[in-house]
């Protein structure tokens, strides 16, 4: 059974920083793309950043230059460093990954979400 577990959310003032982490566990064979999504109240879930196994990245325009996604393939983790946070970054952030597990082909998995609140 595969699981994605996020950590690192919380309350931060505008202009502050947070680092989110996500760890994959279970009968892992390989992990392809990993990504962070977010969903603000009454809005659709949106892609924040994505990173391929080889380290290629892409970002939502709204976070370019402020957020950095990274991964550790040996540890099966993905992180999101968020700087210069704005109130509009407030949302539940979800980890997402395409994972190949024992006895299965690649499947898409979601974490449970972690709340990020940017407020003074």
What would you say this structure looks like, in words?
- With 120 residues, the chain is mainly beta.
- Helix content is 0%, strand content 58%.
- It is built from no helices and eleven strands.
- It has strands at residues 3-7, 10-12, 18-25, 28-39, 46-51, 57-59, 67-72, 77-82, 91-101, 106-110, 114-118.
- The strands form two sheets. Strands 2, 4, 5, 6, 9, 10 and 11 form a seven-stranded mixed sheet that branches. It has a four-stranded antiparallel sheet with strand order 1-3-8-7, with no helix packed on it.
Keywords:
120 residues, mainly beta, 7-stranded mixed β-sheet, 4-stranded antiparallel β-sheet, 11 strands
Fold blueprint:
Elements: E1 3-7, E2 10-12, E3 18-25, E4 28-39, E5 46-51, E6 57-59, E7 67-72, E8 77-82, E9 91-101, E10 106-110, E11 114-118
Parallel strand pairs: 2-11
Antiparallel strand pairs: 1-3, 3-8, 4-5, 4-9, 5-6, 7-8, 9-10, 9-11
Summary, kept brief:
This protein is an all-beta fold and 120 residues long. 0% of the residues lie in helices and 58% in strands. A hairpin with a 6-residue loop joins strand 4 (28-39) and strand 5.
What is the averaged pLDDT score? 96
Shape: elongated
Structural class of the secondary structure composition?
mainly beta
Q: Write down the secondary-structure element order.
A: EEEEEEEEEEE
Stretches with pLDDT under 50, minimum 5 residues = none
How far apart lie the N and C ends? Answer: 40 Å
Biggest sheet overview: 7 strands, mixed
- What is the strand tally? 11
> Nearest-angstrom radius of gyration?
14 Å
Question: In terms of quaternary structure, what is this?
Answer: single chain
Helix fraction?
under 10%
Strand percentage lies at over 45%
Number of helices: 0
């Amino acid at each position: 059974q595969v699981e994605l577990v996020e950590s690192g959310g919380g309350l931060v003032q505008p202009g502050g920083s947070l680092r989110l982490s996500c760890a994959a566990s279970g009968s892992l064979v390989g992990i392809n793309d990993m990504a962070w999504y977010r969903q603000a109240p009454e809005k659709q879930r949106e892609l924040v950043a994505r990173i391929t196994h080889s380290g290629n990245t892409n970002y939502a325009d709204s976070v370019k230059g402020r957020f950095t996604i990274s991964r550790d393939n040996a540890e099966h983790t993905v992180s999101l460093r968020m700087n210069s946070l704005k109130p509009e970054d407030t949302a539940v952030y979800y980890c997402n990954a395409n994972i190949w597990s024992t006895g299965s082909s690649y499947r898409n998995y979601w974490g449970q979400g972690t709340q990020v609140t940017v407020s003074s």
